[in-house]
Write a structure and sequence with these properties.
350 residues; alpha/beta; Enolase-like, domain 1; TIM Barrel; 2 domains; nine-stranded mixed beta sheet; three-stranded antiparallel beta sheet; 14 strands; magnesium ion binding
C-alpha cells in the first residue's frame, strides 16, 4: 500500500498542563493510504512538532510504500537523514516518533495483527505496572506492587528526611516486597545522590532515575558503582539509538528508559533494546504502560514493567485514546486487536 496523506495535529487539551507542556505536549499523527487503511501515532514536541510533520516530513512520505517492518525502518532512516540539519534529537525526533508509531499502527491494521506480533511477540503477557505519583495508599488499593516517587526540588538535610518519610509511607502501604523507585528529575548532584543512597538503604530502593542531567555521562558512569545495590536509571531525554550508543560506551546507566513517543518511535526503540542487550543493560520504558509501550514490551526484550503516571486519586485524566488497556490488580495486558487496538477520541481534536 502507498501513503496518500499524513497529518499531525495538537489536541485541544482541557486539563491544565504545567511547566513546558502547555504548547509542547503530545501530538497525534494520522497516516492514510490508497488501501483505505489508516494508522494513528502519538509523538512529542507539541505545536512545533506539528509544523515539522506537516511542513517537511509529510512531503517525504507521499507515495511511499509501507507493506512491511523493513519498509518502516527504511522510511525512518529517510526521515532521520532529512531532518539532520535541525534534528538528531529534540522536537524533530519527537515528530518522527509520532510518524513511526502511526506507521506501525497502520501496518498492524492492514495485516490484522497486533503490533507486538509484528515485533516478534507470540502472545500478550500480563505486564506488571508501576504507579508514578504521590498516593501510595491508593496505588495499593488498585493492586499495584511497584511505585515510583517523584522527588526533585531543593536538597539538603530536610530533603533526606523527606525522602526517608516518603519511602517509609510507600513501604507501609505496598509492603516489603514491592518495587520502590525514586525519580529525581535532574535535581540532585553526585554528593546528594550518594547521601540519598546511604539514607534510603533500609528501604531497598530499586533505582534512582535522572539524578543528573543527561549530558553528564561521565558523572553518571562514576556514580554507578558508588550507589550499589541501587540501580542508576535514565534515558527519557535521550534520542535514537545513536545517543544510546554513547550511553553504552560511557557505561552511564544500569537501566535505560527510552520514551517510545519521544526517542524515535517503535523503530528506534527496537534498536535501543538490541543495543542494551549487547551492553548488558536493562530497558524499562518511560511511560511504558501506554499502548505503544506495552506492545514494545510484549514484542522485544524489555523488562516487563510498565509505568503509569497516575499522580493521585484526585487527579483527572483526559482520555485521548479510547480502549487503552487499564490496570487489573496492578497488571496491564496489551490489546490483541489490529495495530495498537486503540481509537482516537475525536472530541479532543475540536
Amino acid at each position: 500500500m502507498k501513503i496518500t496523506d499524513i497529518r499531525a495535529v495538537y489536541p485541544n487539551y482541557r486539563q491544565p498542563l504545567g511547566g513546558w507542556r502547555p504548547y509542547l505536549w503530545q501530538i497525534v499523527v494520522r497516516v492514510e493510504t490508497d488501501a483505505g487503511v489508516s494508522g494513528y501515532g502519538y509523538g512529542g514536541g507539541g505545536v512545533a512538532a506539528v509544523e515539522v510533520v506537516n511542513r517537511h516530513l509529510r512531503e517525504l512520505l507521499l507515495d511511499e510504500t509501507c507493506d512491511s517492518p523493513a519498509d518502516i525502518e527504511r522510511l525512518w532512516d529517510k526521515l532521520y537523514a532529512a531532518s539532520i540539519p535541525y534534528g538528531r534529537g529534540g522536537i524533530a525526533i519527537m515528530a518522527l516518533s509520532g510518524i513511526d508509531i502511526a506507521l506501525w499502527d497502520l501496518l498492524g491494521r492492514a495485516e490484522r495483527q497486533p503490533v507486538y506480533s509484528l515485533l516478534g511477540g507470540t502472545s500478550a503477557p500480563r505486564i506488571r505496572g508501576y504507579a508514578s505519583g504521590d498516593d501510595p495508599a491508593w496505588f495499593a488499593e488498585k493492586g499495584f506492587t511497584a511505585h515510583k516517587i517523584g522527588f526533585g526540588g531543593p536538597q539538603g538535610a530536610s530533603a533526606l528526611e523527606r525522602a526517608a518519610a516518603a519511602a517509609e509511607e510507600s513501604r507501609r502501604h505496598l509492603g516489603a516486597e514491592a518495587l520502590l523507585m525514586f525519580d529525581c528529575y535532574m535535581a540532585w548532584d553526585a554528593a546528594t545522590t550518594r547521601e540519598m543512597a546511604r539514607t534510603l538503604a533500609p528501604y531497598d530502593i530499586y533505582w534512582f532515575e535522572d539524578v543528573l542531567t543527561p549530558d553528564d555521562l561521565d558523572g553518571l558512569a562514576a556514580l554507578r558503582p558508588q550507589i550499589k545495590p541501587i540501580q542508576l536509571a535514565g534515558g527519557e531525554h535521550d534520542f535514537t539509538h545513536h545517543r544510546f550508543a554513547d550511553i553504552a560506551k560511557a557505561g552511564a546507566l544500569d537501566i535505560w528508559q527510552p520514551d517510545v513517543t519521544w526517542c524515535g518511535g517503535i523503530t528506534a526503540t527496537r534498536r535501543i533494546v538490541e543495543q542494551a542487550q549487547e551492553a548488558g543493560a536493562s530497558v524499562v520504558l518511560h511511560r511504558g504502560g501506554e499502548p505503544w509501550g506495552l506492545h514494545v514490551i510484549a514484542g522485544t526484550a524489555c523488562e516487563e514493567l510498565g509505568e503509569l503516571v497516575l499522580g493521585n486519586r484526585h487527579r483527572t485524566h483526559e482520555e485521548l485514546w479510547l480502549d487503552a488497556p487499564r490496570p487489573v490488580d496492578g497488571y496491564l495486558t496489551p490489546s490483541d486487536a489490529p495495530g495498537f487496538g486503540v481509537r482516537l477520541n475525536e472530541a479532543l481534536l475540536d
